[in-house]
Amino acid sequence: MVTAALMETPALTDFDRRITPARPDLAAASLQGIIPAPRYVQGETRQVIETTVTLRKDPDFSASIDTELLYGETFTVYDEMEGWAWGQAASDGYVGWLSANALGAVQTPTHRVSALRTFVYPVPSIKAPQMMALSYGSALAVTGSNGAFLALEGWGFVFAEHAGPVGAHESDAVAVAETFLRVPYLWGGKSSLGLDCSALVQTSLAACGIACPRDSDMQERALGHPLDPDTPLAQLRRGDLLFWKGHVAMVRDTDTMIHATGHLMAVVVEGLREGIERIAAAGSPLRSIRRL
């Protein structure tokens, strides 16, 4: 006989695999009593030590990219296999596989890169050969300053004007998004070398201190409050979010919106009415509007 308790136990398929650190063979210890698993793992926190690292659903370099993690992001590792690490990103909870070689010891971040992109130098000189390029939002552990440069814990220097304290937030998410104008569109990308529509929104809101999920469907459910999809365009405000199936854009003003679009393969400013009509003509009418 199946007991009521067993009947009420949720199956793994009841959870969003993108943000649930559980597999048929193991689960995070925090899920014990919530998701049944043959083994529970406490996990080990590590930090990304490369410019970016791709996170994938499967441990296979031919697998599509779910998202990216930037330098300095923390990642809890629950399993390792043949050079791959499986776990969960701390910033947005995304779960997947990434290269274990891209992870190192955790350092406490004090600053974040505030320029679209900056370089790390071995000495505090712009004439020195750069060691690494870091993208907007990358977390830095700064130990001091040297002239116009900040010294990083254990290695290198970055130009001080290209970084700000972790507690300092921007006030205009759209202005942050505008920093990425003409950056190429990249499915799953999250850096200044290439990013997708929801990464642009996530990055822009994070810079303003607003927690934001990774994918557009998650953002549509979690952010702000809904407006009537038929709200006149003249009543929209800067920063309102427009959602279509699988796509999101930010209202820039009553005439324009900004988004990372595969249509033009870049972050662009597009006419608000023209963009809504173009996407609708392609088979995807505007689904919702959210105001933060």
UniProtKB/TrEMBL annotation:
The organism's place on the tree of life at top rank: Bacteria
Residue ranges of domain NlpC/P60 in the record: 167-292
Signal peptide, first to last residue: none
Keywords: Hydrolase, Protease, Thiol protease
Family from the record: Belongs to the peptidase C40 family.
Protein name: Peptidase P60
Source organism (scientific name): Labrys miyagiensis
Upper lineage: Bacteria, Pseudomonadati, Pseudomonadota, Alphaproteobacteria, Hyphomicrobiales
